[in-house]
Design brief:
Two copies of one chain form a homodimer. Helices cover 40% and strands 22% of the residues of chain A. In chain A, a hairpin with a 2-residue loop joins strand 1 and strand 2. Chain A is flat and about 50 Å long. Chain A contains five helices and five strands. The first copy, chain A, starts with 8 loop residues before the first helix and ends with a helix. Chain A has a three-stranded mixed β-sheet. In chain A, strands 1-2 form a two-stranded antiparallel sheet. At the A-B interface, helix 4 and strand 5 of A face helix 4 and strand 5 of B. Chain B binds a DNA duplex (25 and 25 nucleotides) through helix 1 and helix 3.
DNA sequence: ATGCTTGCAAACAGTTTGCATCTAA
DNA sequence: TTAGATGCAAACTGTTTGCAAGCAT
């Protein structure tokens, strides 16, 4: 008896919506995108499927201030968030696996991974603030 | 006309409560501690003062899943969170200022700082899970 | 006296959940 | 056929806010 994964229309819509964006959308962003395809879909279904797809490792989620943001990239990588507008982009910093081992040794924790979030002001908001 | 900072009894209680703990308490933890000293203090006052003290750089706050955690340490440093019990401890990883510059150059963001959060299972929870 | 601060309750954002109904396999 | 999935509404957690009253300066 294997776990059943049903390919519902709604689940497919949610997955496609995440894959069609490159800007780390929030659950609400995805809800609105999917809503444009299916006016009857509920927020609960979107949230449930985002969590489900995260569990299936089909998408990942970035814990940003103001709520989770979803990502089509599956490899561990750092992010940069704009403190003005909330935009999230990928950072080109390589993931350091060794630091996980070092922290595991020094703390006794069983380390799964780590996440790094840079905070700053994006180019567009810098423009706005200077004017 | 300088900004006025009033030393209210409640504000002092909140600051002392954070300083009297070494375990990265949540706002609710602080509320409960302060409540033991002053049964009349309200949650809103605790939240307001935590934010105020953060703004004054008297305390810092760690964005952990499940809510903000407060810290008496003022220097930037990484944290480790237990995915089982939610415990947060300091990580002995040195803060890398250069990576902020590197990300600033490659993204055009004005980087203020970055935070690193390790996720894993603490020694106590490992024990529990093995029994 | 002034205006920052408090306490209360209500509002709020983001997210989860109970339950009857529906549907993919 | 039936267990997983949906839609709706309500619940929930963590946090913020409007307002009248209170208190530090």
């Amino acid at each position: 008896m294997t776990v059943q994964r049903r390919n519902t229309r709604q689940r497919t819509l949610v997955l496609d919506a995440v894959r069609n964006r490159r800007d780390h959308p929030s659950a609400e962003d995805i809800y609105l995108d999917v809503r444009a395809q299916d006016a009857k879909i509920s927020r609960a279904t979107v949230y449930r499927n985002l969590r489900f797809l995260e569990g299936e490792h089909a998408i990942t989620c970035v814990k940003a201030p103001g709520g989770d943001r979803f990502d089509l990239r599956l490899d561990a990588h750092a992010h940069v968030v704009c403190t003005e507008c909330g935009a999230v982009i990928d950072a080109s910093v390589p993931y350091d696996h060794e630091v996980d081992d070092a922290v595991a040794r020094s703390t006794g924790f069983l380390i799964a991974d780590h996440s790094t979030l840079f905070e700053g002001i994006c180019p567009a908001c810098q423009q706005t603030l200077n004017s």
